[in-house]
Amino acid sequence: MAGVSKEDIPDMRSKVIVIGAGLAGIIAAYHACRAGAEVVIVDRGSVGLGTNSAMSNGVFAGQTSSYDKEAYIKDTIQIGRCINSESYVRLVAQEAKNGITFLRSLGFDIIEMHAIYSLQSQSPDVIPGVTLMQRLARIVGELNGVKIVKGFYVTSLLKHENRVYGVSGFDALGAEVEIYASSTVLATGGAGAVYLRNDNQKTTMGQGYRLAAEAGLILKDMEFVQFYPIVVDESNLASMALFPPYPDEARLINANGEDILKKHGFDNVNQAILQKRDKLAILLFEEISSSGRVYMDYRRVPDTLWRKHPMGIISKLKKNLRAMPVAVSPAAHFFMGGAEIDDRCRTLLPGLFACGEVVWGLHGANRRGGNALTECVVTGMIAGRNAAIDADIVSPPKVVNGNHSKYMNILKQRGRGTETLSGIRRNIREIAWNNAGIVRSQERLKKGLKRIESIDNQIAEIVPKNVSEMKLKEDLFSALLTTRAILVASLGRKESRGSFFREDFKKEDDIEWRKNSALSYDNEADTFELTYILNQTQHKTR
User: Alpha-carbon distance 197 to 284, whole Å?
Assistant: First the structure.
């Protein structure tokens, strides 16, 4: 069914509810339905295209005929600087090929290459991620047993005797609604949009991290945020990542026209982006800080190569890239931290499963290219199947004691805020970028925490005028909690590792810091407690 009317929603019950209609969520819903469960998908917007997966270049990492499972495991852990969950990496390695087989069974054209699989778009002018999400949205929308509730914003998880039994939130009309389910799947994505410079969908602001933390789950490794080095930074163009492969003649130049990569000993852009992505982000950040701008320059690419080369997302830009260089900068791209799951994609809260970027464990301190989509497919399949199995065993009680957010009854609040929601959003993003961005320090992090302390009350004082403002207000509470989590976890880690760089602790320290941060949130006190867990991976850093 393509949608559900308001009359169908109150006191809705289902075997499985999936929060989020991105790649992981849609695949979870598909597999839960195929396993015999009635499924409700809820999403704050539309299905498929309003997600980060729709913006991807369609690359999946995994075992191939020329690249065995152990090589994949080794590379993923080495890139993650050996603080990954080794058991989770092995699970993904084992199931990655099954995920590709599943997508091919749905009619997707996927080409095997060395160490990766490449999804072919329906046309040269369509981003591979759009092809992926459009078709999946259509397939899941046609499944009997799946209901899709668009425009539904989840504000809290419903709990009874420490088990999750569904969600509470508001629908497209702003009415408060509870949806009960035997199994709940968290598939909300990450939080890239809490940063001023990011290439995420603007609504990706940490909703899942807030839901998990307020429900009592620990958030692990929230200090690790991947910044993609080359993202369009033009005022009249969308902030889109320029993905490899690049023509060898492509250059990164500064405002003075200097070849940045040659200056720092790199042969070409591909070498830099594939081998030293985290270092390149720091390099470009520092170059921008000193010279003002950095540009991607394609003027030396021969005409014949330009016509043949798969430029992907670049072709969508309304700019003649051959005539003038395009301004670029690093931008927040992906979160490595999140909620811990087991081999069935169960969280530590009974009744709650999780999949996709909101999950911790695969990436460690830095994400290997192609692993984001692979993780979504693998965990979506596993979470969906097991959510359906559990739903056959357990039924929700007639009355659920809600774990309601302290910010519910939004339209009933009264107050006269002096700030606007959009102004507060920019303030949070500036704090995240300036104080918990690519280069961090104790001074920056402490200033960021001090600046962010007063924002909670500012948000609470604003009365939304409509449903769009209700969603934005809730987004800001999520962004606030997520940014605080990043700041607190970053202050605790006194080293640099993978995507995480502290200018006051520049060295990686395996003796003291080969461990994972763990943040627990106290709802009543509105505080985080930070502890550390020694990482048990058997791989060695090199």
Answer: 13
Query: Cβ(434)–Cβ(448) under 8 Å?
Result: yes
Q: What is the pLDDT of residues 66-124, one digit of tens each?
A: 999 999 999 999 999 999 999 999 999 999 999 999 999 999 999 999 999 999 987 76
410-513 CATH choice from 3.40.50.620, 3.40.710.10, 1.20.58.100, 2.30.29.30: 1.20.58.100
Cα–Cα distance, 278 to 276 (Å, whole number) = 6
Band of residue 5 on the pLDDT scale cut at 50, 70, 90: very low
3-state secondary structure (DSSP) of residue 252: strand
CB-CB contact of 199 with 240 (8 Å)? yes
Q: Which of 84, 96, 52, 352 is nearest to 190 (CA)?
A: 52
* Chain centre to alpha carbon of residue 271: 25
pTM for this model (two decimals): 0.92
Write down the H helix ranges in 394-539.
421-435, 442-452, 455-461, 467-492, 510-513
pLDDT at 318 over 70: no
* Percent of residues in the chain assigned helix, strand, coil, to nearest 5: 40, 20, 40
219-220: strand order across its sheet? 338-339, 219-220, 515-522, 527-534
Which residue stretches of 266-370 are H helix?
269-275, 277-291, 303-308
Cα separation values, 137 from 20, 335, 381, 438, Å: 12, 24, 15, 35
Q: Are 343 and 65 in contact (CB under 8 A)?
A: no
Distances in Å between the alpha carbon of 136 and those of 139, 384, 493?
5, 15, 40
Name the least confident of 173-187, 208-222, 320-334: 320-334
3-state secondary structure of 463: coil
pLDDT mean across residues, the chain: 89
Question: Whats the size of the chain, residue-wise?
Answer: 542
Chain centroid, CA 247 distance in Å: 28
Interacting residues of 271 by C-beta distance below 8 A, sequence separation 6+: none
Q: What is the DSSP string of 113-149?
A: -SSEEEEPPSSTTS-HHHHHHHHHHHHHHT-TTEEEE
Q: Given this structure, which CATH class describes domain 229-332?
A: alpha beta
Ordered by start, the domain boundaries in the chain are 229-332, 410-513
